[in-house]
């Protein structure tokens, strides 16, 4: 199903940013073959994860990563807790943020996902879901109404040239 919806995005050098629910090595490999990129947080228990990256113990501020032959980078970075990342667009490069080093992959991921986080937060303020509905009706109404309304609002504001609400 995903291939049918994403066919027009392949071979266009686009980057797909995913959270740890969708990030897997297999998807990254397929996107890399077709000219796309995948950047996302990674669950430690996924198949095909490099065991030595997952099991490496790090102190705060340390980074460990591996790059495969097909340009898939799996990174582990320790800030307050361990952060696992997968990227076909980035290597293990860092940049200075204030007085500490931060992975470029994490900076790009946070910038791309910030819009989704704001959208989810705004949708939670005014849900169209009623108490009398069954759970599956609530999911459908929320998906159709709440997300659509909030995303439409952001599209209108962005098209007007405003940066913030």
From TrEMBL:
- The answer to whether keyword Disulfide bond applies is no
Q: Which InterPro entries match?
A: PGBD
Record keywords, A-Z: Membrane, Transmembrane, Transmembrane helix
List, for all copies, the residue spans of the domain called PiggyBac transposable element-derived protein: 8-152
Q: Does the keyword Membrane apply?
A: yes
Pfam families, per the entry: DDE_Tnp_1_7
Ranges annotated as spanning the membrane? 139-157
Descriptive protein name: PiggyBac transposable element-derived protein domain-containing protein
């Amino acid at each position: 199903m995903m291939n049918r919806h994403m066919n027009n995005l392949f071979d266009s050098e686009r980057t797909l940013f995913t959270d740890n629910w969708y990030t897997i090595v297999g998807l990254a490999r397929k996107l890399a073959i077709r000219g796309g990129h995948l950047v996302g947080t990674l669950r430690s228990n996924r198949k095909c994860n490099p065991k030595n990256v997952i099991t490496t113990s790090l102190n705060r501020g340390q980074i460990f990563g591996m790059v495969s032959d097909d340009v898939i980078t799996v990174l582990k970075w320790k800030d307050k807790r361990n952060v696992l990342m997968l990227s076909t667009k980035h290597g293990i490069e860092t940049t200075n943020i204030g007085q500490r080093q931060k992975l470029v992959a994490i900076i790009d991921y946070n910038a791309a996902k910030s819009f989704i986080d704001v959208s989810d937060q705004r949708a939670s303020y005014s849900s169209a879901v009623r108490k009398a509905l069954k759970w599956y009706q609530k999911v459908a109404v929320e998906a159709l109404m709440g997300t659509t309304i909030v995303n439409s609002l952001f599209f209108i504001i962005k098209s007007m040239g405003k940066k913030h609400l």
